[in-house]
What we know:
- The protein is of the alpha+beta class.
- Helix content is 42%, strand content 21%.
- A hairpin with a 2-residue loop joins strand 7 and strand 8.
- The longest helix is centred in the middle third of the chain and has 34 residues, at 379-412.
- The protein is globular, with a radius of gyration of 28 Å.
- The two termini are 18 Å apart.
- The structure holds (3S)-3,7-diaminoheptanoic acid and zinc ion (ZN).
Amino acid sequence: KPVIYLKDYQAPAYQILTTDLRFELNTEETLVTSHLRIVRAEGADTQAPLQLHGHESVELISLTLDGQPLAAQQWQREGELLSLQALPAEFELICVTRIHPAQNTALEGLYLSDGIYATQCEAEGFRRITFFPDRPDVMSVFTTTLIADQSQYPILLSNGNPIAQGELEGGRHWVTWQDPHPKPAYLFALVAGNLSKFEDHFTTVSGRKVLLQIYAEAKDLDKLAYAMDSLKRAMQWDEEVYGREYDLDIYMIVAVDFFNMGAMENKGLNIFNTACVLAHPRTTTDAAFQRVESVVAHEYFHNWSGNRVTCRDWFQLSLKEGFTVFRDQCFSADMHSETLKRVEEVSMLRTAQFAEDAGPMAHPVRPESFIEISNFYTLTVYEKGAEVVRMLHTLLGPELFRQGTDLYFARHDGQAVTTDDFVQAMADVSGRDLSQFKRWYSQAGTPRLQVRDEYDAAQQIYRLRLKQSCPATPEAAEKLPFHMPVKISLLDDEGALIPGTQQVLELTAAEQVFEFTQIQAQPLPSLLQGFSAPVKLDYPYTDAQLAFLSKHDNDGFNRWEAGQQLAVRLLQRLIADYQAGKPFSLEARLVEVWSSILEDEQIDPAMKSLLLTLPSEAYLSELAEVIDPDAIHQARRFLRQALAQALEAQWLNLWTAMDSEAAYQPTREEIARRSLKNTCLGYLMTLDNAAYLALAESQFNAADNMTEQQAALMAVAHSNFSDSAAALLDEFFHQWQHESLVMNQWLGIQASDPKPGALARVELLRQHPIYDARNPNKLRAVIGTFCQQNPVNFHALDGQGYAFLADRILELDRQNPQIASRLLTPLTRWRKYDAQRQQLMQAQLQRILQEPNLSGDVYEVASKSV
Ligand code: B3K
Ligand code: ZN
């Protein structure tokens, strides 16, 4: 597959005014008739060919131009391109194709998910349905007729509004849908199946009544209320915060079990992975409830940031994804807690996105080239892209930012635009020059921010010296300075904010000094508050200063951060001890800090739970020069156990205090209480004490909700009480074997068990009747979890974990290249490991690359990684 470059972008020579589609859904095959009204674009060359895309799996049956079969010399099919020559300025094209949804295991285009027809067209899936200019800057009005067997497929859905329907002989029926909003093909969707629905209404700010429907299998009808409630809250929030109103009379969500990602924002007809829509207290954890809420909101927000205003080309993907993630982050923060949400976002960014940005697939938020666009639905485009929008929000302030988004939506409604257009709207409303800021879109890599300070007591001047740099990444060795908002405060020695010192410093040069006058005594700086820029901060805090900030910082995020950095330091010392063969020892300072957090009644339970949670193995790995999975695991395990032992009575007291008889509620307070309770249980269970095993088992049995039941199961399953672990896993299996999503948790808990022998256990899971190697959720639960959340076992020095993953990739590549390519990620990070592991990992990458008919997806990732 060729490399596609941003610099080669050319506007389309033809536009499609209307697209009429007719789908005849049969068991063996589907016939698709597309009827396009086409005009040559203004200013386009009259000789320009029309280029339609079509995947090799699409059988072309006929092409008719203005009623005449197309002459052989007028068209040519080569690879994915079908070119039509010698065309009038305006014409109608009818194209008939045959496709085979039942054989579509890639889950792109039209496929069957457990007997339900569903589509996934972003980014380039529509070309697996029919020949079409499958690019986001070609927008047209779609009318879609679906014809299928009435008893098997009673529900027939597509974008927009239903405008006609009827019955046919032979037990078949049809429905026609029309979407009045011009859209690119990637937003097309259809669904056909035997589905049940849950309905509600939302009245928009201008008084329009919108019908809301969520479709799922009948057995899941009791799990739709939370998604519906989330949808209504998202609709209201977008009216209040962004002035965005919904624009159709109906909004539908369909839940399917086979789905490559989380969800898809097709116009008026979102299709969701069941994992991101079904929620019920008995089967769904609090974390999953929150995910449902945020994904429902995210897809809804796309209606404006993505659908009404879309991307000119796929290099602009972050235009809709970064912005929409920022929007869903703010929504969730408003629904729950700003600080907690920020901690969660930053943790993910700093572990996974920073690792991506330091690896072979590092790319700018607006990439310059790709082989397979599916590989660029990344943490960089999504999460770092959201950070970039957040920085604009920080630099402009909320009022100007809102004026900027208003202008952006008004100026570009109905258009396909670029990230430059987005920044331009912000520049226009603020009168600011944001040209340097745009480097955040074009330069990859995580910048380093070094801060040093000096205090001149005689002059009462305090100076902060900020220095930025950015490591080389594949697209560029040398980086120009970023325009970086650095939010800070200066604290006095009581921990109080020195008046007037909380501000956003704007760092634009490689090195800059900021001066503060009338500072009466040496202050303590709180830097990068709220994580105001996605960078690695370096300031020489002492342990004592970190402990102090963890109590007194005026920024909630930085209070958490100070405690984390303190724990990181202790863990790094333990890691070094392990590597030097020295025995572990617990430092008193962390025990004091943890003890005071445990006792502090002022800290809300959710924050307390976060403060007491040690930095993850993934974060410690990201920070390491050379990752030593064993040392990291053993150090963290030791510290957890030591803290459990040193503060045993306090953990138990707090567990008891957080225990409650109250019925489950997914409210902020209740989520916090359960989270803290589970954190306490986790610590206690490291002590290998039968009394705590009994406590965990009692929590498991008493739980009326999955959050407490699952945490208890995990604690026991990962403990050294192997008989109890087996028994509890078995009990859980029998209780929930008919709930596919719960079974994913069951699989994941076992795949992530760090005890030796995990690979053999994973092999058994793959043989288990509930496992299905065609279902992406199952693959992620077993293979993804083992390779990404069980580092000690995956990285075992016998190399078997690596060989196992390579086997799976080679197997999967023929079936579902997107998922294969995603799962490959851990092997691409070989440069961060010791020589022996490097060699083992590279050998597996080479093995993969030797496969003759590798997909573009896997080829791109593997070849860029070796
Ligand atoms: N836009 C989709 C992602 C599509 C991924 C295609 N490989 C979901 C989302 O970000 O909302
Ligand atoms: Zn999105």
